[in-house]
Amino acid sequence: MTAKPAAAAARATVYGYPRQGQNRELKKAIEGYWKGRVDADTLRQTAAELRRGTWQQLAEAGVHEVPTGDFSYYDHVLDTSVMVGAVPERHRDAVAADALDGYFAMARGTQDVAPLEMTKWFDTNYHYLVPELGPDTVFTADSAKQVAELKEALALGYTPRPVLVGPVTYLLLAKAAPGVAADFEPLTLLDRLLPVYAEVLADLRAAGAEWVQLDEPALVQDRTPAELNAAARAYRELGALADRSKLLVASYFGRLGEALPVLAKSPVEGLALDFTESGAGNLADLAAAGGLPGKRLVAGVVNGRNIWINDYEKSLATLGTLLGLADHVDVSASCSLLHVPLDAGAERDIDPQIARWLAFAKQKTEEITVLARGLSAGTEAITAELAANRADLASRAGAALTHDPAVRARTAAITDADGRRSQPYAERTVAQRAHLGLPLLPTTTIGSFPQTTELRTARADLRAGRIDEAGYEERIKDEIREVLSFQEKAGIDVLVHGEPERNDMVQYFAEQLTGYLATQHGWVQSYGTRYVRPPVLAGDISRPEPMTVRWTAYAQSLTERPVKGMLTGPVTMLAWSFVRDDQPLGETARQVALALRDEVNDLEANGTSVIQVDEPALRETLPLRAAEHAAYLEWATESFRLATAGVRPDTQIHTHMCYAEFGDIVQAIDDLDADVISLEAARSHMQVARELAAHGYPREAGPGVYDIHSPRIPSTEEAAALLRKGLEAIPAERLWVNPDCGLKTRGWPETRTSLENLVAAAREIRAELPTEAA
C-alpha cells in the first residue's frame, strides 16, 4: 500500500544525541581536566569538536534540523539550573570564582561542600542532578551556553533547533533546598521562573533561532489538575510572547494523556509526541482531541531507548494516519538518542546477520530519514529499504537464539511455591543471627572495590596475549587477598571479595548467560563521565555453568568472617540491558530469575552464608503511570523471590538499591522478602530510612552513610550523625552500616579513609547504645 504524500515534505529531526564521541573523547577530556592534565581551553575545544562532528553526521544522514543546547559537560538539568540562576548558596562562591569549576562542584561536590542530589531521569538509567529550590529562590537568566551553541551551528551552515528543559518539568523535578520545609512545592515558583524563560527565548530569537524545543517529559506522568493548570498557564504565557521563536513542546517516554489537550490548545506552534510502544495511546488521544490544526507535529516513531531496528511498514502506517491530524508532520525518534550507543557499525564481534537487527544512534537517524522520504514521496521511493527491513525482521523472528524450548518449558513449570522462602522472616532472622554471630550495627560494603589501573592493565594484557589465563588469575587472586586484608584490618564485619574480575555488574553476568550479546563500543552515559556498555538481551536465557562460585569460595577460604556472594538481580539485568521487545518483560524476567536461582543455590552449597542480589533498577523501571504499577511490581518482585527463595532459612539474602525515590515502592521492597536491604541515603539525609519506618518495614536495612558518587571523604563525625538519624527510624537491632553503593569508581586512598571512618562511626554509635541493646 502506498503512503499518501504529505502536502509539504516531511522533515527528519532528532530531539538530542549522545555527547561522548565515538571513543568517549568527552569523558577523557573532562577527567583529564579534573586531574589537571587538560586545561579549560582544551576541554572547550574538545567539546566544540564533538558538537561539530555530531551536527555533521546528522546532516549527512539527511536530518534537516539539528538539536543544539542538548550537549552537556555533565547533565542537562544541571545546565538548566545554571541557565536560570538556581545555584545553591553553598556553591555560589565557587561559581563566582570560576564558572566551570563551580559547575563541577555542584555536580561532584568538593571535600568541603556537598554536591546536588542525584537521581534517575524518569524510568531510564540516566541520572540527573536535582535542582534545590525554596521560597527565597531568585531566578536570573543566563543564556550564554544556549546562544553560543546555536551560533556555532548557524556559522557551520546547519539549521539548528535549541533544546531546553521546559519550565514545568524543571520545577516538577526539583526538590526543597536544605533548610526549607519538606512540603514546599517548587511548582509554586512558576510565575517567578517564566520571565526568565521569556528572556532566554528572546536571546535565542535574537541569535537566529527559528524554532526552540521545550522538553516536558514530566507531563507524561500522572499530573494533578493544579499541575495541568500550571502547564496551561506556562504555555499560554510563553506562547503569547511577541519576541520569541516558534515553540515546539516535546514529550516522550509515554502517553501524554490528560496533558495532550492542554498543550494542543496552547498558542505554541508545534508538539512532539511519542508514538512507539511506550507512547501507546497518543495516536488515539490525538484523534480524540481533534488533532493539531494549524500546528506542526513531530512524530516519534523510532524507538529512542532501545536498539532494535524499526518496523518501517508499521511506522509508515502510523505516520500516514497522522497526516490527517496535523498541518505538518515531521519524523523523529521517540526521545533523545542520548539513551542509545553511537554506531552499531562499529561492532565487529557480533554475527553479521544478528547485527542487522540492531540500530544505534547513527542507524536510527538513517531510519528516521528513510521514513521521512517514504512519508513525503510515497513507499515507491524506499522500495529497497522496505524489502531489506522485512527480511531483517523475519530473520530475527525465526532465529533459534530467540526460542529455546528447554528454557520455555522450565518457566512454564514455575509454581507459587518456587517464589516463597521455607520460613517467614521472623523465624529466619533468629537462625541467621545464631549462624552469623554479627554485632549490632554490622558493617559491610555494597560489593565492588576500586577498579585500579593495575586491574585494567591486567585485562588489557590478557586480551593482547601479553599474559595467559593463569597469569591473569594470579593477579585477580592478589587483588582479592589485598581487599580482604584491608577489610579485616579496618574492622568490617561482613566482607566482599571486591569483584576485581568483573567489568560491569550486568555485563559480567550477561557474558556468561546464553541469550545475551556483548558489544565492544556500545557506551551509554549513566551520569557525568560514567559510561556503561549495556549488553543486548536478544534471546532466551539460561546459565550453562556457575558464574561467581569459584571466586567467592576462594575469598571465603582466606577468612573466618562471612564473605557475601554478589549477584545482579533479574529486574536490573533487564533494565540495564537493551532488552528484547518481542515478548512480555515479565516472561524475560522469569528466565533470568531461574538462571540466577541456580547460581544462588550453588553459592550456598559451596559455603556462602550471605548472598546479595542487587536490584538498583527496581524503582527506575517503575512505569510512569500509576495505573501500570501493580502489573509491573507483581512480575518484578516475583522474579526476585524466584531467584532467592530456594535457600535455607539461615542463609541471609541481601539486596541493594540506589539513586531513586523509593517512597512509592516501599511495599514492593517489603514484598521482595529479602532479609537485609541497603539503600542510597547520604545525599538525601536518611530520607529513605524515614520512608521505611513510615511503612512499618519489618526487616533489616542499611541506609548508606558514605556518598560514593562524590570524591569527598566523609568524616567519622559526619557518618555518625547520619547513623543517629538512621536510628531515629530503624532500631539498632535492624540497622546496618554501609556506603551508598559500590566502590568501583573510587580510588584506594579515599576508599580506605572513608571506610575506616565508617567503621569508627559504627563503633562510636554502638558505645552510645543502652547496655541492654549493646
Automatic annotation (TrEMBL):
This is 5-methyltetrahydropteroyltriglutamate--homocysteine methyltransferase. Its EC number is 2.1.1.14. 5-methyltetrahydropteroyltri-L-glutamate binds at R24, E25, L26, K27, K120, W576, E620. Pathway: Amino-acid biosynthesis; L-methionine biosynthesis via de novo pathway; L-methionine from L-homocysteine (MetE route): step 1/1. Keywords: Amino-acid biosynthesis, Metal-binding, Methionine biosynthesis, Methyltransferase, Repeat, Transferase, Zinc. The keyword Phosphoprotein does not apply. L-methionine binds at I446, G447, S448, E499, D614. Residues 441-763 form the Cobalamin-independent methionine synthase MetE C-terminal/archaeal domain. The gene is metE. Signal peptide: none annotated. Its cofactor is Zn(2+). The active site is at H709. GO terms for molecular function: 5-methyltetrahydropteroyltriglutamate-homocysteine S-methyltransferase activity. Zn(2+) binds at H656, C658, E680, C741. It catalyses: 5-methyltetrahydropteroyltri-L-glutamate + L-homocysteine = tetrahydropteroyltri-L-glutamate + L-methionine.
